[in-house]
């Protein structure tokens, strides 16, 4: 008995359903490397100026829609990416999309959902991912081992209360401490806007947000969190927004890294993303700027400050619609520093009382900010703004210049819209949109150049104020993505959050440079990757001693072939000698012999024929033990040869040859030798 | 169609048809389709095409699909399907040979565009919309589309594959509707060709050796039996059931999950519930063939059926209970040592024997005389030891399998228990015993002596997932009764979890919830009054534990503790025993401290808890330690401080809720000087940045109005109405307090609040007020004075968006006059509309798409 093969092990990873979305801070993606930096293309600022500033719709983060399935080319299975609401029989869709990041990973028998985002562009149930694709596998809580949220933007966490409190997921949700703190604020902000605008009854409530947050388990950076005995996760710094993290998911020797959104260059308040050489089986990376080499952020910042300064100098009012927390704080630091340096007196306001809240969280999570902020924190907290004051609604009517940060960021409700309506008619004023706006919002309209807006009650609002678009999004560009792939050294890469054509370019680049497979699934497609998991096997002492007795000491650098019997018991593997295996299993050894008949033309008696065979073999096989036994049979090692008379032809003898499978080579050789006949002289 | 939209449509069609013009994202195209669907549903699609020939022109470029982007191509396919859903429009499009070129071989089907999942999805959806009439069926038959749909069932895109299955069901249903006048043929061989083809495909798939194909067929059948209840479906089931039964002979059973779904959908179908279909036998066979984790959902489904043979129900219930049986048996197997296991486990088994008394097992909701399941625990599953190795083996293969199966079982039983069709009598006692045992295994307090029990202990020790599921189930079991000894054990294990430092925050939350459920269901003593002695004893033991939880470093634990406290005080705050125990504990003091918690959620819960404690007279203001004579700030002041200064909305909203409740209940602090209280609260609330706080401020104002002027008059036409209106002087006098608390300033300003719900609330309030003062204003006639003019001017300013100064002192006469002149009904109608109706209108969509399309190209080129 030799090897006991237990069957091929193939543990697939499956990646269904990511979709991506805009968190409100995107620029269009130029083709990479269409133009080198410093080429003759105008800067975004100049380009926007020249056209009276219109937002490019290509600037929003779009998911690859019409992407050919990679499985056909690679025979690696399918790719399923992004899901949409599918209420029979209508409304499927496998196209590109905005929002609703949601990826399901099956790894080593564990199911993990990565992000649970919402779609800002819809007001009906299409705004949330269609979880019925998971619920058809049984109860959500039974099927999913955990949910991981990469950061607090709503396109990554907006559907969470719906998922946990309305659809019924009752398992653990993992996110970093800052995300846990800020996430409910944004969810609450969004809920308030949704209810305010539409009076929605069928929507998650404040209590639901709280109950959802109670299911959250907060993690620290680089802390290995054991979800259960087999599944572990680890967070890495991702930049992008406060608390954003990349997550490594590991089951046994298999692992996946999900980047979420990340930024490989530090900005005013955050550091650069970093990951160790964890060599995952798969890296799922965002590719918002798949083909973009971004210009210096300093340049965009200078443009922004110049614009604001010019407007204030001419006595105008500047409105900057922002979302509650995130990019707004970066812009605040920027303006605060500029105001201090230039000794400007025009007031800056931040609406909705979020300034204190932001300060609180940035102070609390100071270790998540960049080095500069951490250093200066001892002397001065960068988030204790001297020039930025809380806004009161009555201030909007005050004469003279001012700068106001107001929510929400797309000018679709609340205070920012109210202020916009007041100030829109004056050409001295300015609105700066620092992020992407969905269709239908006032923000979207003014960025697409519309100047006469129909408001409620058929009122027409004429927009005379200056409209600017300045993206401050913090995503890794093509160079950054390549850098991260180089850092993590994955075996495979999967691109999400990008536009098909541009992702294709990056895919080729990754494949060429890193010699790894790169996938870019379309919405609704699944990728299955075969992996080679290493399974720990215990080796019996007896077997090891036997091997060592042969003079071969174990050497970690030189893998060796070790023969034995693999026993699986209680989910453990052990390699033992075949004798031990037989003993342990209480089995008797069976012997397997091959047999063959060879016909010889020989009219002599059987005993004589046997003797002739013996003589012949003795002369040919000098190194082997050839014996002639008293019963007339001949043996060569384990091979047994007997001569018998032919039943019909007395001139022919039949040689019965049999051998064990261990001596198969010799047995075959002997058979072929005997088939050639005996030499005439042999006696 | 709106004429303005009609004007813009040609330009948009031109943009969409032009491959050089990149269009807006998919969201816009999706919304555009929504709009076309609304128009088509509301009228004639043919007319729409005739009035807007640009739509036909738009569909024509499909002749060269390679020129179009996949998303536009998918859009056109879906649009064509929506339009062709009406037969006359379908014929119109057919005349132009448009449909074959879109959906036939000549279309995108064979081309490069087909590789895009979005195009395949558009093709399927287009066909699904189109297949609404017999002409469509003929078209499908001739175009060979059905074969393509078959192949798309295995598509790489989840959406396409799923939609393909649904489309097959739709086509089958429609083709069988055509000859529906007569009784359906007993032989599918006599069915329409299209139906025969689909049924043949399903048969072939069911016979296939590849599991994905079997799954596809089962899913199609599940969808069909779930949605179509025509008589022919019975014929189909009779025809196909042997093939389905064949699946059960395979080892392992392929596509078990889909098979369970199918069998349950068949069992639920009103036309298929007769026993002649052999369905019950198949279900019974399936229950015995599937693995425990696969059989659980089937067992639950069977038990939820309205009508089902008793034997099958008993079998299903036994399957469902099997894991718990295993747990109980494993934890009590102590050969030769009957007393060595924990006392709780012993008790559990004592109660689950096959001859367990109906008194112990019948719950409140159960009917012991029903006789459906005469034994508390289904026969054969508990009591004997013959099944023990089998059931134990079911739980023991691995920790993951054990945990998964137990969680699933507990969740299934939790779902089943409240249903009227649950097995009767419901075995409360054994289930309680099992839940308690599992919780003990999880926290290590069980000491089983058998090997299986030891294994279970190792698997379940510290397992949060099982703890959560068991506590949920334990909470649900509070609806029934068990032997007092078991109830004592329940309280004991709950106390253990609430006390244990090892309990995770999520487990603690569940433990609090379960505790509350058990306390609420605890029977009241016959004499009324206080809590049942056991519950009272438990609460006394719990109250010293609560402070530890209120001091937990985890915010969620502190919050869950406060939520629990609020509920218990609301329920038992008036009972002497509870009051005494609570006042003797540190709980009230700690709760007050939590008003200053760093977490806003906790602050909000502390506000609610303090509000409740104060309402029940359980908040005693302690004397300041430094100055024995001086008292600390009153709770009212403390809450007002939170309302004015807290940076988060949750605590401020919680304060408003407490204040409104205090006003309703005439809380002592409020009743002392209600006017002063209302004035102070409204002054702060009206300035709040959170619209929900402002809205709640108006709610408080409304309560004040109602208390002063009386409840709103009943809308019942038969209700008695007071014959005479109050004299003007009295009304003016009645309005004076509102003027003094500056209620009108807040309400009028809120009428033009930028947040719609605030304006709506204000509108309701003012309408109520106007109704109350109608008689007065009738008698006074139109009033015009300087006050009225200044108020009207202020209203105009506010409507224009100016905030301006407060109104100052108003005279009631001016208020009444302005109330009369305001079109409050009109305003209420306008506010009732969603505030984004303008931006979500089709016109807005067309304008946005056109505006964006014009600039896309430029931006693409010149960024970086």
Automatic annotation (TrEMBL), chain A:
It is found in: Cytoplasm; Nucleus. Component of the Integrator complex, composed of core subunits INTS1, INTS2, INTS3, INTS4, INTS5, INTS6, INTS7, INTS8, INTS9/RC74, INTS10, INTS11/CPSF3L, INTS12, INTS13, INTS14 and INTS15. The core complex associates with protein phosphatase 2A subunits PPP2CA and PPP2R1A, to form the Integrator-PP2A (INTAC) complex. INTS11 is part of the RNA endonuclease subcomplex, composed of INTS4, INTS9, INTS11 and inositol hexakisphosphate (InsP6). Interacts with WDR73; interaction is required for the assembly of the RNA endonuclease subcomplex in the cytoplasm. Residues 99-293 form the Metallo-beta-lactamase domain. This is Integrator complex subunit 11. SUPFAM superfamilies: Metallo-hydrolase/oxidoreductase. The gene is INTS11. Its cofactor is Zn(2+). GO terms for cellular component: cytoplasm; integrator complex. Belongs to the metallo-beta-lactamase superfamily. RNA-metabolizing metallo-beta-lactamase-like family. INTS11 subfamily. Keywords: Cytoplasm, Hydrolase, Metal-binding, Nucleus, Signal, Zinc. GO terms for biological process: RNA polymerase II transcription initiation surveillance; snRNA processing. GO terms for molecular function: hydrolase activity; metal ion binding; RNA endonuclease activity. Residues 1-21 form the signal peptide. Residues 328-446 form the Beta-Casp domain. InterPro entries: Beta_Casp, INTS11-like_MBL-fold, IntS11_C, MBL, Metallo-B-lactamas, RibonucZ/Hydroxyglut_hydro, RMMBL. It comes from the Eukaryota.
From TrEMBL, chain B:
It comes from the Eukaryota. Coiled coil: none annotated. Keywords: Cytoplasm. The keyword Cytoplasm applies. GO terms for biological process: cell population proliferation; DNA damage response. Signal peptide: none annotated. Its main location: cytoplasm. One of its GO terms (cellular component) is cytoplasm. It is found in: Cytoplasm. The keyword Cytoplasm applies. Belongs to the BRAT1 family. This is BRCA1 associated ATM activator 1. It comes from Suricata suricatta (Meerkat). The gene is BRAT1.
């Amino acid at each position: 008995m030799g090897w006991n093969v237990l069957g091929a092990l193939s543990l697939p990873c499956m990646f269904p359903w990511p979709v991506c979305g805009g968190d409100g801070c995107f620029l269009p993606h130029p083709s990479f490397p269409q133009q080198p930096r410093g080429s003759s293309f105008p800067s975004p600022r100049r380009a926007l100026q020249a056209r009276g500033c219109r937002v490019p719709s290509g600037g929003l983060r779009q998911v690859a829609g019409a992407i050919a399935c990679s499985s056909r080319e690679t025979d690696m299975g399918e790719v399923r990416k992004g899901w949409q609401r599918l209420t029979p029989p209508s409304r499927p869709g496998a196209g590109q999309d905005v929002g609703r990041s949601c990826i399901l990973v099956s790894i080593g028998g564990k199911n993990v959902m990565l992000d649970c985002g919402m779609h800002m562009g819809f007001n009906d149930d299409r705004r949330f991912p269609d979880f019925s694709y998971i619920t058809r596998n049984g109860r959500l809580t039974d099927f999913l081992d955990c949910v991981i949220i990469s950061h607090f933007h709503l396109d990554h966490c907006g559907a969470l209360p719906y998922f946990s409190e309305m659809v019924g997921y009752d398992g653990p949700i993992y996110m970093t401490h800052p995300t846990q703190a800020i996430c409910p604020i944004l969810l609450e902000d969004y809920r308030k806007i949704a209810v305010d605008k539409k009076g929605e009854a069928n929507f998650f409530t404040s209590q639901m947000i709280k109950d959802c947050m109670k299911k959250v388990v907060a993690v620290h950076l680089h802390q290995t969190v054991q979800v259960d005995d087999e599944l572990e996760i680890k967070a890495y710094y991702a930049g992008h927004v406060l608390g954003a993290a990349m997550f490594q998911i590991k089951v046994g020797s298999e692992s996946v890294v999900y980047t979420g959104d990340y930024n490989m260059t530090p900005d005013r308040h955050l550091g650069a993303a970093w990951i160790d050489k964890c060599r995952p089986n798969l890296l799922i990376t965002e590719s918002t700027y798949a083909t973009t080499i971004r210009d210096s952020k300093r340049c965009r910042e200078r443009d922004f400050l110049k614009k604001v300064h010019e407007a204030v100098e001419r006595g105008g009012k500047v409105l900057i619609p922002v979302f509650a927390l995130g990019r707004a704080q970066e812009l605040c630091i920027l303006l605060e520093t500029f105001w201090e340096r230039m000794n400007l007196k025009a007031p800056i306001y931040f609406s909705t009382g979020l300034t204190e809240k932001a300060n609180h969280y940035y102070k609390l999570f100071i270790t998540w900010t960049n080095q500069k902020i951490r250093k200066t924190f001892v002397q001065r907290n960068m988030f204790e703004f001297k020039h930025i004051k809380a806004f009161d609604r009555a201030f909007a009517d005050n004469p003279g210049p001012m700068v106001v940060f107001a929510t929400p960021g797309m000018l679709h409700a609340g205070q920012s819209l109210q202020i916009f309506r007041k100030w829109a008619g004056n050409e001295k004023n300015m609105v700066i949109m620092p992020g992407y706006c969905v269709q239908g919002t006032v923000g979207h309209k003014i960025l697409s150049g519309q100047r006469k807006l129909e408001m409620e009650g058929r009122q027409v609002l004429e927009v005379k104020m200056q409209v600017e678009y300045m993206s401050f999004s913090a995503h890794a560009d093509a160079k950054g993505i390549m850098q991260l792939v180089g850092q993590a050294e994955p075996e495979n890469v999967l691109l999400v959050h990008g536009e098909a054509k541009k992702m294709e370019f990056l895919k080729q680049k990754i494949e060429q440079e890193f010699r790894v497979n790169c996938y870019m699934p379309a919405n609704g497609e699944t990728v299955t990757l075969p992996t080679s998991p290493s399974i720990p096997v215990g080796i019996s002492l007896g077997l090891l001693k036997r091997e060592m007795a042969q003079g071969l000491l174990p050497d970690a650098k030189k893998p060796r072939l070790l023969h034995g019997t693999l026993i699986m018991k209680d989910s453990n593997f052990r390699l033992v000698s075949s004798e031990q295996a037989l003993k342990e299993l209480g089995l008797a050894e069976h012997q397997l012999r091959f047999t063959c008949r060879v016909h010889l033309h020989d009219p002599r008696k059987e005993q004589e024929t046997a003797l002739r065979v013996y003589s012949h073999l003795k002369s040919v096989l000098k190194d082997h033990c050839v014996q002639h036994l008293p019963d007339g049979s001949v043996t060569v090692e384990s091979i047994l040869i007997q001569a018998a008379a032919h039943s019909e032809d007395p001139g022919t003898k039949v040689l019965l040859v049999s051998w064990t499978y261990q001596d198969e080579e010799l047995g075959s050789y002997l058979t072929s030798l005997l088939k050639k006949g005996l030499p005439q002289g042999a006696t | 169609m709106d004429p303005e939209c009609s004007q813009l449509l040609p330009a948009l069609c031109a943009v969409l048809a032009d491959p050089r013009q990149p269009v807006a994202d998919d969201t816009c195209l999706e919304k555009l389709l929504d709009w076309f669907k609304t128009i088509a549903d509301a009228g004639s699609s043919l007319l729409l095409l005739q009035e807007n020939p640009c739509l036909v022109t738009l569909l024509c470029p499909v002749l060269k699909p390679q020129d179009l982007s996949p998303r536009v191509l998918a859009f056109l396919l879906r649009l064509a399907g929506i339009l062709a859903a009406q037969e006359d429009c379908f014929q119109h499009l057919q005349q132009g040979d448009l449909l074959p070129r879109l959906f036939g071989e000549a279309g995108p089907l064979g081309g490069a565009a087909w590789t895009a999942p979005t195009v395949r999805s558009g093709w399927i959806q287009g066909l699904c919309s189109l297949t609404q009439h017999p002409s469509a069926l003929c078209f499908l038959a001739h175009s060979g589309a059905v074969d393509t749909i078959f192949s798309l069932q295995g598509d790489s895109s989840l959406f396409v594959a799923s939609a393909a299955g649904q489309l097959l069901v739709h086509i089958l249903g429609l083709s069988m509707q055509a000859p529906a006048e007569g009784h359906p043929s007993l032989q599918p061989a006599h069915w329409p060709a299209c139906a025969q083809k689909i049924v043949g495909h399903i048969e072939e798939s069911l016979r296939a050796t590849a599991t994905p194909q079997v799954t596809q067929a089962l899913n199609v059948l599940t969808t069909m039996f779930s949605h179509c209840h025509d008589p022919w479906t019975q014929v189909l089931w009779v025809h196909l059931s042997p093939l389905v039964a064949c699946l059960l002979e395979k080892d392992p059973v392929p596509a078990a999950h889909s098979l369970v779904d199918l069998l349950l959908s068949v069992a639920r179908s009103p036309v298929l519930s007769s026993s002649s279909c052999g369905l019950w036998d198949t279900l019974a066979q399936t229950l015995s063939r599937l693995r425990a984790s696969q059989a659980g959902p089937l067992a639950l489904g069977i038990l939820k059926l309205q009508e089902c043979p008793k034997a099958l129900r008993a079998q299903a219930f036994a399957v469902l209970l099997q894991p718990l049986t295993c747990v109980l048996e494993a934890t009590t197997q102590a050969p030769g040592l009957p007393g060595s296991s924990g006392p709780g486990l012993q008790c559990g088994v004592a109660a689950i024997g096959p001859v367990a008394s109906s008194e112990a097992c019948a719950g409140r909701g159960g009917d012991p005389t029903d006789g459906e399941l005469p034994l508390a625990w289904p026969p054969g599953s508990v009591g004997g030891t013959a099944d023990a190795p089998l059931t134990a083996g079911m739980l023991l293969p691995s920790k993951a399998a054990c945990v998964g199966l137990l969680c699933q079982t507990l969740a299934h039983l939790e779902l089943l228990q409240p249903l009227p069709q649950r097995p009767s009598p419901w075995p409360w006692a054994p289930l309680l015993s099992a839940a308690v045992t599992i919780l003990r295994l999880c926290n290590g307090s069980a000491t089983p002596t058998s090997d299986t029990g030891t294994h279970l202990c190792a698997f379940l020790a510290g397992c949060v997932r099982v703890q959560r599921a068991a506590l949920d189930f334990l909470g649900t079991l509070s609806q029934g009764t068990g032997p007092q000894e078991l109830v004592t054990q329940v309280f004991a294990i709950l106390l253990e979890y609430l006390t244990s430092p090892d309990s995770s925050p999520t487990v603690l939350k569940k433990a609090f919830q379960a505790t509350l459920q058990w306390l609420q269901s605890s029977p009241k003593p016959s004499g009324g009054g206080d809590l049942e002695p056991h519950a009272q004893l438990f609460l006394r033991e719990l109250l010293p534990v609560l402070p530890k939880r209120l001091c937990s470093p985890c915010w969620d634990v502190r919050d869950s503790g406060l939520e629990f406290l609020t509920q218990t005080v609301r329920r038992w705050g008036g009972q002497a025993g509870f009051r005494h125990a609570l006042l003797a504990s540190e709980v009230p003091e700690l709760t007050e401290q939590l008003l200053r918690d760093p977490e806003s959620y906790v602050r909000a819960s502390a506000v609610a808890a303090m509000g409740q404690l104060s309402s029940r007279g359980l908040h005693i203001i302690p004397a300041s330690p430094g100055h024995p004579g001086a008292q600390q700030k009153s709770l009212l002041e403390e809450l007002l401080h939170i309302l004015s200064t807290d940076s988060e909305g949750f605590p401020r909203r919680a304060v408003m809720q407490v204040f409104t409740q205090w006003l309703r209940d005439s809380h002592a602090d409020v009743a002392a000087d209600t006017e002063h209280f209302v004035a102070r609260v409204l002054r702060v609330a009206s300035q709040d940045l959170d619209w929900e706080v402002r809205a709640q401020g108006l709610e408080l104002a409304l309560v004040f109005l109602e208390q002063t002027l009386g409840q709103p008059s009943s809308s019942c036409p038969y209700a008695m109405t007071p014959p005479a209106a109050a004299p003007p002087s009295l009304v003016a006098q009645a309005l004076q307090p509102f003027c003094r608390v500056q209620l009108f300033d807040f309400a009028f300003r809120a009428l033009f609040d930028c947040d719609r719900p605030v304006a709506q609330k204000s509108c309701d309030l003012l309408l109520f007020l106007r109704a109350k003062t109608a008689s007065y204003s009738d008698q006074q006639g139109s009033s015009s004075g300087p006050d009225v003019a200044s108020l009207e001017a202020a209203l105009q300013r506010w409507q224009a968006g100016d905030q301006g100064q407060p109104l100052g002192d108003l005279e009631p006469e001016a208020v009444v006059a302005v109330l009369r002149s305001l079109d409050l009904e009109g305003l209420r109608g306008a506010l009732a509309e969603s505030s984004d109706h303008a931006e979500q209108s089709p016109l807005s969509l067309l304008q946005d798409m056109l505006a964006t399309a014009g600039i896309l190209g430029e931006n693409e080129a010149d960024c970086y």
